[in-house]
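Please fill in the sequence for the structure shown.

STRUCTURE ENCODING:
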């Protein structure tokens, strides 16, 4: 009854059904525990056993949803862990619009209906040099909307080297099919030339698409066609060139000593007519998909009914605007933008954190786990610079066989780490759980969690 007050009847009923189904299954298969035999033979007092199980399940489901975790996986922008952490400015902007009515789509001068894109339009134009821009739910939606608007029922040549799959079922051929486009594969996996595109362009071709190979590189005997070359071809065929940049950067990361990606502005300057990119990869903002480019094309894109279905809400708009504002002072980004802050953490800074933590963690759990501090390599994640690794340091946990029970000691340890009140997520490597300290903000908090580990 207490559970129903706290979690609601449907949740408790669902958990009861799950638990009872499990027991029914055991009874049917003749796998009864001795306790249940007792219960069957009249010990009704065993019923609390089942109700306790139901309670545990309800609570587990309730508590485990959206739980904060330590991301010590070594992947900074981790899609399954929510990608970019937002800057304070974005969080307070979201709080503001969440709690108050505000002029989201309302022109305060004329008193008439406005356009929600206006909150970021000028900023995006200023930061990318585009003529116009819009925002949708994520970059997958951006590609879908652009292709559906500009190339529905017609042919789009794309290099065989760029038929990308991004984790979580984003596949270029599937998106193209959903958008109603006919994908024409050109070139080969490793080499595609301008003449391949040229031969594929016909009466039914309405756009060229170039996709950033976000999570892989084709090395060795390979060649692809650059944006300037493709742009020239598109211009002569009088069709637009669309570039899906994936993790588009708004500033050149080289200025901070990171490996470079072409910026959105650079790709537009090289002649792309439309560029799409994610708001929550290298940009460091909320989940969103940004579309920037030619004004006439954006007018068509905005007029597509799909745009309404893919639009972003006020929280996203507020957060995105706040993040884009930070880009007006690019020199301060390493302090103001959490994504850059973690990517720019120097190896010696990370090691200093580890040196401080190591003795405390050893004292807490050294009896059952061998703890060391070892160099490792972090990755940026989410399809940004897949082959560029950043030197880092990790606490390495190796279970001591006799102390740590369970099947496969290492797996048991990884499971225990995930089951801590604030789960600790690392990476299995070299017979150890590596806890990469790059994304760690508070060493004391981690120490407190690790101290709760038991074998
Ligand atoms: C990540 C990525 C996408 C998908 O972006 P989401 O924001 O995750 O929807 C699409 N294309 C490329 C090239 C990407 O790297």
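FILLED IN BY: designer on duty
SEQUENCE:
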């Amino acid at each position: 009854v207490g559970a129903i007050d706290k979690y609601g009847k449907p949740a408790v009923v669902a958990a009861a059904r799950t638990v009872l189904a499990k027991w029914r299954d055991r009874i049917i298969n003749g796998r009864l525990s001795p306790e249940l035999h007792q219960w069957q033979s009249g010990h009704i007092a065993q019923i609390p056993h089942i109700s306790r199980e139901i309670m545990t399940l309800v609570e587990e489901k309730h508590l485990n949803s959206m739980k904060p975790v330590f991301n010590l996986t070594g992947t900074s922008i981790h899609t399954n862990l929510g990608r970019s952490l937002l800057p304070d400015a974005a969080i307070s902007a979201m709080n503001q619009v969440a709690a108050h009515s505000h002029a989201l789509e309302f022109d305060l001068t004329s008193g008439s209906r406005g356009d929600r894109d206006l909150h970021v339009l000028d900023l995006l134009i200023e930061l990318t040099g585009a003529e116009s821009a819009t925002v949708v739910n994520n970059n997958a939606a951006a590609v879908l909307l652009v292709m559906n608007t500009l190339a529905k029922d017609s042919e789009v040549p794309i290099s065989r080297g760029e038929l990308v799959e991004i984790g979580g079922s984003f596949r270029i051929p599937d998106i193209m099919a959903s958008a109603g486009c006919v994908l024409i594969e050109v070139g080969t996996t490793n080499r595609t030339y301008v003449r391949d595109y040229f031969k594929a362009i016909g009466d039914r071709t309405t756009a060229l698409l170039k996709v950033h190979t976000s999570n892989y590189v084709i090395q060795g005997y390979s060649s692809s066609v650059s944006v300037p070359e493709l742009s020239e071809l598109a211009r002569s065929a009088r069709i637009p060139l669309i570039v899906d940049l994936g993790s588009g950067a708004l500033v050149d990361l080289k200025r901070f000593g990171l490996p470079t990606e072409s910026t959105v502005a650079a790709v537009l300057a090289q002649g792309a007519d439309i560029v799409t990119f994610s708001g929550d990869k290298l940009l460091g903002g909320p989940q969103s998909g940004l579309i920037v480019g030619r004004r006439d094309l954006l007018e068509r894109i905005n007029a597509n009914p799909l745009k309404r279905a893919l639009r972003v809400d006020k929280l996203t708009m507020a957060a995105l605007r706040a993040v884009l504002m930070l880009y007006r002072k690019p020199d301060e980004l390493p302090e103001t933008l959490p994504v850059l802050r973690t990517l720019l953490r120097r190896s010696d800074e990370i090691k200093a954190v580890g040196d401080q933590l190591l003795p405390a963690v050893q004292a807490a759990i050294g009896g059952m786990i061998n703890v060391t501090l070892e160099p490792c390599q972090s990755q940026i994640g989410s399809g940004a610079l897949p082959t560029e690794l950043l030197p880092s340091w990790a606490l390495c946990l190796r279970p001591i066989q006799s102390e740590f029970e369970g099947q496969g000691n290492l797996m048991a340890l990884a499971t225990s780490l995930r089951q801590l009140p604030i789960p600790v997520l690392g990476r299995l490597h070299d017979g150890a759980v590596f806890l990469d300290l790059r994304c760690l903000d508070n060493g004391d908090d981690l120490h407190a969690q690790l101290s709760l580990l038991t074998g």
